Amino acid sequence: MLRCLLRRKRSLVLYLAAFIVCYVAVSLLLYTNHDTPSIGSVGSPTHLKNPPPPHLRSSRTLLQRIENKGANLLRRIKIQTGLSDTWCDTVVQTNDLPQVGNGCYLRNKLICNGMPTIHSAFADMTDNQVVFVGIKYKNDSWHKEQYFCDFGDNIVTTTDPIVDDNLSFGGQPQYNMIITCPIPARVLAYLHKHEITTVSLHRSSELRYAYVNIPICATAKKKKFLSVCTMVKGMDYLIPDWLVYYMYMGVEHVYIYDNSHESDSTLPSTLKTFIDIGFVTIVPWSHTHTPWKTYLEVQIAHENDCMWRHRHDSYWMVKVDVDEFIQPMNQSKPKIIDYLTDPSYNHLAAVRMRNWFFARPWNASDEEKNALTVFERNTWRQPEPTLENRGRDKSIARPINIHHYKIHGVKLGGETYSLDPYTDLRLVHYRTDNPRHPRFRIHQFIRDQSMVTQWKEIEKWFAKYQQNVNS
To answer: Model pTM?
Structure first.
């Protein structure tokens, strides 16, 4: 009985509070609709022809105070962040990549309540369009909005229809968004000459919402048959051997998105040799994920930037982490490129490789535990590869046939063909040596030194390669 009375008492209090709020709101609405200021008298109720009733004056004054404080707070925020009178109007900081000559990336994502979150923007010089890559929440309806690109000098184009991503894909679903708008001939001619310009992205239904003066750079012109794209953070020690391995396997260029803060990153010095010979591009990508999302937002944003930015200059794109090595299993096909020349693969979006964990038992010898390379430290594997479509597969993608991509495969695009891990390519995964997974273990072990044998051949090849470069 007492509990019932308390519930009724709380309900009555809530009803009373709601009635008071509604009464004040309706009274203010009626007041503002019927009591207009006289000419030349702005602001103070005492200058009105029909002043408000006494019981509303305190509410009116309170609302004015709140409004004034909000305006002052917004003004202070604008001063601190460099915003102008347009909501979300910002001049974006970028990093210019001199080792590429025409690479341009955002230091962090663009985010605003009135606009979609944008992680990158660039000029596709083959399809003649600006591409914006973003990540959204599942229920966001940005695809229903219309936007336009303003290139300055009254040159404006309307964005193309946006493909909605509502597919829950993987254990932690993330949702992609690609916005494109045509580049007018005059701007295109300027880009061909200067390789960089700026564009503003406006929301047509709410013109006050805009990202202004975003630098966009022209995409690369040099064509490559096989490239690699990955994202890292503080894993320098794994990368040099990883790069040598893929160089031997036929990869022509590697794009490494560096998620470390610029002041903390040591990659440029660690990989200087590979940068100097034009094999590696380090992309500054110290983006942070949106609240209520995970680091996967930043990872998926970099993947879609890589796929769209290189859809015309990279025929195939390997998408693996730095603890993953693609191993050819057919002796007559010793390089990765040997498996990608079948003309029937041209229509595919990707070829899928099954994951096979390599590790070492807890009682491994000290010599094996302290070996110099990841190959020599992990000469044991699981009896079988991981089952397909269990979140461990990785892909070699055809960027031109992909619209949305997510970590382990194509989310929206063409078909994916699965390769045989026993006779084609398998993904050798050294997860035990990855500091992000210190507790990872496998429980059944089979000795497998095939990667050690292959690495010794690669070391001899790389020594000769360095001699040729230095001579």
So the answer is: 0.79
